[in-house]
Amino acid sequence: MLRLTCPYCGAAADETELTPGGEAHLTRHGPGSSDEAFEGYLFLRKNPYGVHFERWRHAHGCGKWFHAARDTRSLQVFGTYSAQVTRPPQDIIDRIAATHPGFDWEAGQ
Amino acid sequence: MSELLCTEGLARIETVSGRGMITLKGELESRRFRNVLAKALDLPLPGPLSCAFNGARGVGWMAPDEVLILVPGEEVPEALARLRNKIGDHHITAVDVSDARAQFRLTGPGAREVLAKLSPVDFAPARFAPGTFRRTRLAQVPVAVWQKEEDVFGLVCFRSVADYVAGLLVNAAAPGSGVGYFASGG
Ligand SMILES: [Zn+2]
């Protein structure tokens, strides 16, 4: 059972109160982009066995989209944060590095 | 005006008809928003996951940009006029949504357990106390539930699923179905 704390209302939301939104921090490639870039944006996802950054919506709650960082292997949740950012906050990256020494967010992008 | 759905069992459950509901949307953090609530309806701005009452009026925190105002049904036109007068041309919207949602009241020491059976929210007395207001899931539908005072809970759901919610609540409160999970009731 996954429980994520919504950064907007502070509720400890059960997975069944949330709607998954897939991988976070995608760069949109729209009209005018190359076929490869558009395909990557539309279809290709990391789907890692480990640290993952995701989008979730507090659908049965305050209704807001937010970001979550968690480990898909251990199910450890490193934290949730605003959807209005293009990279995870440093405190979450530090928390990941504590259990995944040498974790490099930029290198994974 | 209310219909009694169940008196025996874990809780007394009734529909609450004739209640007025007004959605107020805007930037909750702004001083303007707080002033509109205070000056138009003498209501404080509740923080996240909470609600506040002033006599027959109440207000619950719905989202970072939305509160739900509860007033007696007959007060809606005047309340709306007072709100709009204080809003002026600022970017805050007030809309009568009284017909959008159905309201229920659950009373009794077992009311907490009835809700806990149907929702993933932690209804432990220390976590869900008078003044708590939470939007969540009741079985398969979205609801907002709050505790007004000891052993008294309010709940709203979309009117289209009111019969479903009434059935859920009555079933969860069936006589002999107490689990006794919380020390205070069951
Ligand atoms: Zn939320």
Automatic annotation (TrEMBL), chain A:
Superkingdom: Bacteria
InterPro entries reported for this sequence: SoxD, SoxD_sf
Gene Ontology terms describing biological process: tetrahydrofolate metabolic process
GO molecular function: sarcosine oxidase activity
The protein, known as: Sarcosine oxidase subunit delta
Organism whose genome encodes this protein: Rhodovulum adriaticum
Lineage, highest ranks first: Bacteria, Pseudomonadati, Pseudomonadota, Alphaproteobacteria, Rhodobacterales
TrEMBL record, chain B:
Pfam families, sorted: SoxG
Record-linked SUPFAM superfamilies: Folate-binding domain
Superkingdom of the organism of origin: Bacteria
Xref: Gene3D superfamilies: Heterotetrameric sarcosine oxidase, Probable tRNA modification gtpase trme, domain 1
Protein's name in the database: Sarcosine oxidase subunit gamma
Species whose genome carries this gene: Rhodovulum adriaticum (Rhodopseudomonas adriatica)
Taxon lineage: Bacteria, Pseudomonadati, Pseudomonadota, Alphaproteobacteria, Rhodobacterales
